[in-house]
Amino acid sequence: MIAENPVRTKEAEKAIRQFVAEGSLTEIVPYGNGHINDTYLAVFQTGDGAEKRYILQRMNHSIFKNPPLLMENVVGVTQYLRKSILAQGGDPARETLNVVNTVEGASYYEDDSHNFWRVFLFVEGTLCLEKVESPQDFYDCGAAFGNFQRMLADYPAKQLHDTIPNFHNTVSRFRDFQRAVGEDKVGRSALAGPEIAFALDREKETAVLTDLLEKGELPLRVTHNDTKLNNILFDRVTRKAVCIIDLDTVMPGLSLYDFGDSIRFGASTGAEDEKDLSRVELDLNLFETFTEGFLTGCGGKLTGREVEMLPMGAKLMTYECGIRFLADFLEGDVYFKVHRENHNLDRARTQFKIVADMEKKWERMAAIVEKYKNIF
Hints:
Blueprint: H1 6-16, E1 24-30, E2 38-45, E3 51-59, H2 67-87, H3 92-95, E4 99-100, E5 109-110, E6 116-121, E7 126-128, H4 135-151, H5 170-183, H6 193-200, H7 208-214, E8 221-223, E9 232-235, E10 241-244, E11 251-253, H8 255-266, H9 284-298, H10 304-308, H11 310-330, H12 343-360, H13 362-372
Antiparallel strand pairs: 1-2, 2-3, 3-6, 4-6, 5-6, 7-9, 8-11, 9-10
Helix pairs in contact: 4-8, 4-9, 5-11, 8-9, 8-11, 9-13, 11-12
């Protein structure tokens, strides 16, 4: 089967051959729904007639400025995970991504056009969910990302490179937002007066987590930083979480970032760009479901202070996403893709509606965390 773009397919065929020298390439097609990297499924037939499948990706070096350092992170973390999985009697071929080196032994290939390519073994018998279809899905999502924290709890996080500097530094994101408000490049600030005021009113909270990190009250950890449901592979038969994928944003950070981003994405009752804000709130049942799964997966590896601050992680990650959407709206929609007028403003409004609802439900969120703090 040939991909839709013959030129791109030719590039992909050349790239995959830098990693897989033997066998007959029988298929190479675009794969998945990712928006950052170009992803292909490559199928080879071996000499004995069996099929072997690979995931080939062209890394987006406009977003990830230094692919070689990014791959150092990916290789270091996946090799560490592989050892941990073997030690606990698991299957590293399915429970972590496996990097395929080039025939010359490198973790990536740079082509003549300075594009960077990489290859992973295809994880057989799995599926990817784009949305939560049941509370069990969200529990398993929490358990998977919690287990990711557990297995990497002793990994030296400082050895990792920042693939996107200040990615979840809310203080830095707030400064970017302030600059967007001040410059008002496309004259949109008048359309977002209430939203700008909402964001500015919460400036003091932006430094809560970074201050605790600087004081040593929160430990620096390996964090995934993009903990959406669709970054987990589930077993096709059991529907249990198998493997965490999309490790491009694995960096030093706080466990609260990973917890909070999942809550922001998965515990809302409305779509991320819902126009009718009456449909948007924090679903406390889903918050509880994920919290139970996450803390179970963590297996007691979080400190008491980390557990205590989980609600703040959820609030700040939601707030941070809101100010990013709002800043992009004020700058003319230069980062997030938009599909209608005021799309990023609508997105900011949903995030701020969830933040406001969290503030109303704060004591109940804290009580839920308290309920499961010793579940391990």
